[in-house]
Structures are given as structure tokens and as C-alpha cells.
Write a sequence for this structure.
């Protein structure tokens, strides 16, 4: 048996246009990889799910809810999630400093996909 006989991707009729749409620099796989990179990190998903459960939280509450996370990692992940526009940082410009975090519109749009990923995982045993 040759590689072309055993590999199913050789049997699927794909034109060059379709291949570029999936694999090109602006293709489907690149967009999925980008989303995975946005949520990659030990604490990013717990942060997102926690912010989904409550409309807004202070970092001290996130620390209490995730006791194994360090302040440094929490701050780093919150900044990255904010840069990726998945969460919003609300500065109340008060003394003492009061800052809260909430899901952005983009973050709320991502949540059904994350719940679907959870459902998919639960239905596929290890």
C-alpha cells in the first residue's frame, strides 16, 4: 500500500482555492491557532469561566477563587487576556486603587465555543 492509498486526505477532492482557504496564511487553521494561543496558559480558562459566572470581579476575588495561582501569574494572564480583548479592565480611578475585570463582548462570544469544547471532551473518554 502506498501513502496515497492509506491517507484519506488524498481522497478528498480539494481544489487549490479550497486548500488556500484552509491552510493559507489567512486560512481557517490560522484563525483556530490564533484562538488557541489566546486561551493558552494554565490559568486563562479558569479566569474566563470565573468571569463568565460573575459580571465583574476584582483580582483579589480571582486569587481567592484560584488559590494555587500566584499574583504574578494572575497579573500576567489578565494582561494577556486584556491585550487579546477577551476581558476588560475597569479602573474606577479611586484611591485606594479599585480595578475590576469582566468579559468583553469578544470574550462572551467565545464562551459558547468553550462550553462546546467541554461537551466534546466529556463525550470523548481519554
Amino acid at each position: 500500500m502506498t501513502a496515497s492509498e492509506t491517507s484519506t486526505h488524498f481522497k478528498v477532492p480539494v481544489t487549490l482555492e479550497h486548500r488556500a482557504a484552509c491552510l493559507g496564511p489567512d486560512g481557517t487553521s490560522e484563525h483556530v491557532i490564533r484562538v488557541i494561543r489566546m486561551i493558552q496558559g494554565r490559568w486563562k480558562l479558569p479566569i474566563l469561566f470565573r468571569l463568565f459566572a460573575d459580571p465583574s470581579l476584582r483580582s483579589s476575588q480571582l486569587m481567592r477563587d484560584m488559590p494555587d495561582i500566584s499574583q504574578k501569574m494572575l497579573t500576567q494572564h489578565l494582561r494577556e487576556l486584556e491585550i487579546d480583548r477577551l476581558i476588560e479592565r475597569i479602573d474606577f480611578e479611586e484611591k485606594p486603587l479599585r480595578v475590576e475585570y469582566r468579559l468583553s463582548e469578544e470574550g462572551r462570544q467565545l464562551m459558547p465555543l468553550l462550553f462546546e469544547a467541554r461537551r466534546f471532551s466529556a463525550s470523548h473518554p481519554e
